[in-house]
């Protein structure tokens, strides 16, 4: 709040002044002062805190997606929003070193809020299903493999390699079959589309927190931090879309898988959020 005496007072978000406001439309009278209320982009370190829950506190909830779908960024958003570490079935030392301290925690400990898993599992489970445009997911995963990095962009020459064509075929099939398997093996689920998450991460994370059922005491403050922050340590920078790595045959194959998943979602799920318009993305 900026007072008539040119003094600034920092406060918290409230029901009257939510995180989407840049400023309050009217001035307020506080005591003998008239004040104006503004939102600033000052980094709020209160949102950096992450903890492990006491053992066997959390029910087992999985974050399921095919590689390249943005699951590491999603984990960052979940941790930033809730203040609780996420877990993983993979023990990735690179991610653990980068701050994902739940990476090496036993998946049955109940100390982490969500567990990253690419497979559908053998038993029905509660799942957050992260779906990304397959054109983007395939490029992201192929680039990661070639650069051996979660954030590498690689060189466009890699798409001329023979491995590229075989990767497209395998991952296009996997994108369809894995997402259908996630849905079939879910005792309950929420679908999060990467593109909607990128467009409005605060709105999508509200949905995720409601699905998890975890009580976040300072949710509004954490969502404000989430809105103001960058992309997180492990989100890749944007790739140059001037280069289309897909042949016409590859594009037709992926388009067909998109149509098949769209039909499955329409006929077999209660989630009426339509599949984003992925076809012929490039």
TrEMBL record:
InterPro entries, sorted: P-loop_NTPase, Sialate-O-sulfotransferase, Sulfotransferase_dom
Cited Pfam families: Sulfotransfer_1 (PF00685)
Highest taxon of source: Eukaryota
Keywords linked to the UniProt accession: Transferase
Domain Sulfotransferase as annotated: residue spans: 124-221
Family that this chain belongs to: Belongs to the sulfotransferase 1 family.
Identification of the protein by name: Sulfotransferase
The organism of origin for this protein: Clavelina lepadiformis
